[in-house]
Specification:
single chain, 361 residues, alpha/beta, Rossmann fold, 7-stranded parallel sheet, 6-stranded parallel sheet, 13 strands
């Protein structure tokens, strides 16, 4: 079996690498190559010989630039595949789905759905739904969902139930949890620490969180990671003399997660719940916070909020309301310290998911 995975970003995300490693683990005689679109012309990782790149310097976050340049990437993929001759094409992004019939007509196509590409315009979103459902039903041989709730969504939209599908929850790998490497006590034990660990975006929501926390004594916010909102947030914090309230810890590697999580008391994971994808998605923080036994804060009116409520492992809040966040901060101060529910930690790791790949390959 020869698999060609397509990625619209580089450096590669941890999930892309995890899926590749799991395919090789379950199918030891297989070959898996990743063809990535290096849109920032990032430095090449020479240790990843299994990666082929289409290099450009157009950046990320600009949909128009992506649309204008995607044909060049697709042509490069087609030319590479003529020599590589993949038996399976593993595509991830919706934009790649549109071209799947051109790239590979004779090979099996696996479509991995990270998120629902929901568009704010109802008419455009309606067209997107119809196009996606049509292509899936016509060209796709199997589906991998990143959330169990995505399957419900797509079946409701008309996906054939006969298409083999699985859910690979975005759980962390087991080597993340090594008790000897975990810092048991916070660096600052005098304050209740709310932490956000990941790509720092959604400026308006994080500003709401900062303003709500600013109303309280003995509470601080740690923002770990990098992202499009960092500059604006830093400017706001400096302008309002909040350096003692908000700490930016910068970019991190997966190996840093144990220390980052254990230096927090509560994990902020409240994303824009007006987004259809947020309503259905289950974030990696949902599993990481449970591994490190930290209560999580998620957006209300979402599927993840239902799970958090059922398992009694955190809180839900309207991320657009400073008053509601303020009220929640008062509540978590009263609840801290807390006893975390016991559960089987082995079920929270990626390794508990990967055997499902046999169904779609």
């Amino acid at each position: 079996m020869k698999v060609l995975m397509l990625s619209d970003h580089y450096p590669l995300s941890p999930r892309v690498l995890k899926v590749r490693e799991s395919i090789l683990k379950k199918f030891p005689m297989s070959e898996v190559t990743i063809f990535a679109w290096n849109r920032n012309n990032a430095e090449v990782n020479k240790n990843q010989e299994f990666v082929k790149l289409y290099n450009q310097k157009i950046g990320y976050g600009n949909a128009l630039k992506k649309i204008k340049n995607i044909i060049g990437y697709i042509k490069s993929v087609i030319n590479f595949n003529k020599k590589y001759n993949a038996t399976h094409l593993h595509i991830i992004d919706f934009s790649f789905l549109i071209f799947s019939g051109l790239i590979s007509r004779n090979n099996r196509i696996v479509y991995e759905i990270y998120d629902v590409k929901y568009l704010k315009s109802k008419s455009l979103n309606y067209i997107r739904e119809k196009v996606e459902v049509y292509i899936i039903n016509k060209y796709i041989d199997s589906i991998i969902y990143a959330s169990p709730y995505f399957e419900n969504y797509y079946i409701e939209k008309g996906i054939k139930k006969t298409i083999p599908s699985i859910t690979l929850n975005n759980k962390p790998c087991a080597n993340l949890y090594k008790t000897e490497n975990i810092q048991k006590n916070k660096i600052n034990s005098q304050k209740v620490v709310v932490g956000f660990i990941g790509t720092i975006r959604h400026t308006d929501i994080l500003l709401n969180l900062i303003q709500a926390i600013n109303k309280h004594d003995n509470v601080e916010l740690k923002l770990a990671g990098d992202g499009p909102s960092v500059t604006k947030l830093k400017e706001y914090v400096k302008k309002n003399n909040m350096e003692n309230l908000v700490e930016f810890t910068g970019r991190f590697n997966t190996i840093d997660l144990p220390i980052l999580y254990n230096d927090c008391d509560f994990i902020w994971a409240a994303y824009p719940n007006e987004n259809m994808n947020v309503k259905y998605a289950i974030s990696n923080k949902f599993f990481e916070s449970r591994i490190f036994k930290k209560k999580i804060i998620v957006a209300n009116e979402t599927m993840i909020a239902d799970l958090v409520r059922q398992k009694n492992i955190g809180y839900e809040v309207n991320p657009y309301s400073i008053d509601e966040i303020d009220h929640l901060i008062s509540k978590i101060k009263k609840d801290y310290p807390y006893n975390y529910p016991n559960e089987n930690i082995n079920d929270l790791f990626w390794e508990s998911e990967e055997s499902k790949l046999i169904k779609v390959y």
